[in-house]
Amino acid sequence: MTLVYDPTDPDIRRNPHELFARLRETEPVHWSPKLSGWVVTNYELATDVLVTNSIYSADRFVPFQKHLSEERRATAAEIMRWFKHWMVFRDPPDHTRLRRHMANILNVPVFDAKSEAITSVVNELLDRIPVGQDVDFFQAFSLWMPGIIVADLLGVERDKLLEVKQWSDDMMTFIGSSRGVPDKYERASRGANAMGNHFLELIAKRRADPRDDAVSMLIASEVDGERLTDDELVGCMMMVLNGGHETTANLLNNSMLALVSHPEVMKDLRDNPGKMTTAVDEFLRYDSPVLSLGRLVTQDTELGEKTLKAGDRVFVMLVGANRDPEVFRNPNDLNITRMPNPHMAFGKGAHFCLGTPLARLEGQIALNAILERFQRIELCEPVESIPWLNSLVTRGPTRLPLRLQ
After folding, report:
1. Where in the sequence is the domain holding 271, given as residue range(s)?
2. Is residue 245 in a domain?
3. What is the DSSP annotation of 156-208?
4. Residue 66: pLDDT band by 50, 70, 90 thresholds?
5. Handedness of CA 274, 280, 282, 287 (dihedral sign)
6. pLDDT digits (tens, 9 = 90+) for 100-150
7. Tens of pLDDT along 283-313?
8. Angle (CA) 22 320 399, round 5°
9. DSSP character at residue 274
10. 339, 363 in Cβ contact below 8 A?
């Protein structure tokens, strides 16, 4: 039977692990007609793609625009005004320059200083969860906790969070949605422009009245005597808000699903909260909150005995690479003391996520607080009935019906 990766299949969205395992064994570099691109599921080959920037470019939008209709090209250009400044879509030397600016606000000392604030937000949200009743944990907690933290980091008003989240969701249909999303270009344009204009207003306010937040720090940041332009500032802020929100929300959702399906692990962590540091990394490996990273082939090359042509798209399936048995012993087991654990949930190479320490810290604080407070956590419906995100970037359920007691 021919193996085909189809991201529109709801069963594959929910559980791609069996298919990815078979692809790793038989065709680790797989052509997906549904994606019109290559799918890589092997850890070593995935690493090759992510660290070889000269052959596999992160800038996959400029060539893509050439194939659009004139009407869609104009809409895409509006969106690209902002996206072209996201360092995740840039190659060196532009990526290097932007990353140096971003490292001034996304670093371990800044994140460690947020520990008390994270604990406060976590407890405030958990206080609101009705005990013993069915609740959508995504809407009640996972959506809000990282959103509030990253909003505070950027200086965005908390009461704007849901509106900003909607802008982000609309905007991300341009980047991460699978096929079949209606009006994706128009939605993305509206979301990107609304968020862009909001951030331009915030930048103007901070120039007039600097504060102790990331926006003011970015405005003041200098690299080799140069500062960021307003559009670059907006692009950086968009990227931080989206990455810092979506990834951690899905880390929490996927971790909770792993825990309810492994009650012995839940008990172990409740009895031994010190294990949460390695546990969070295992949750990241076991069901990565990021499904894939896209790259564009810049020259004809060979990968996994396949010939890739210049202009081909490549999707590095982090979820597949993180269960490669050549790297991880018993990869389908949830082992919260796994060491070493060289998972690539946050990428590899020059584009390794700067926000990784913050996501880990949020996960450790939140999950320990949840297990300390609630002695019984149950899923309220079969996992098979829960739809998963229609995305090639983020991975997680669209809702998480739990009962906490």
Report:
1. 10-404
2. yes
3. --GGGHHHHHHHHHHHHTTTTB-S--TTHHHHHHHHHHHHHHHHHHHHHHHHH
4. low
5. positive
6. 999 988 999 989 999 999 999 999 999 999 999 999 999 999 999 999 999
7. 999 999 999 999 999 999 999 999 999 999 9
8. 110
9. G
10. no
Q: What is the band of 272 on the pLDDT scale with cuts at 50, 70, 90?
A: very high
Tokens coding 222: 């200098």
The CATH code of the domain that includes 272 is 1.10.630.10
323 token code pair? 């269960």
Number of domains in the chain: 1
Type of residue found at 68: L
Cα(194)–Cα(321) distance, integer angstroms = 36
**Residue 3 maps to a domain:** no
Strands 301-303 and 377-379: unpaired
Query: Which one, of 44, 111, 52, lies nearest residue 342 by Cα?
Result: 44
Query: In the structure, what pLDDT confidence band is assigned to residue 189 with cuts at 50, 70 and 90?
Result: confident
Q: What is the 3-state secondary structure (H, E, C) of 28-73?
A: CEEEECCCCEEEECCHHHHHHHHHCCCCEECCCCHHHHCCCCHHHH
Both structure tokens of 171: 């905007």
Question: From CA 73, how far away is CA 322, in angstroms rounded?
Answer: 36
**Within a domain: 104:** yes
Q: Which residue has the tokens 């007039």?
A: 208
Letter string b/e over residues 341-366, b meaning 16 or more CB atoms within 10 A of that residue's CB: bebbbbbbeebebbbbbbbbbbbbbb
- CB atoms under 10 Å from CB of 33, counted, come to 9
DSSP-based three-state secondary structure for 373: helix
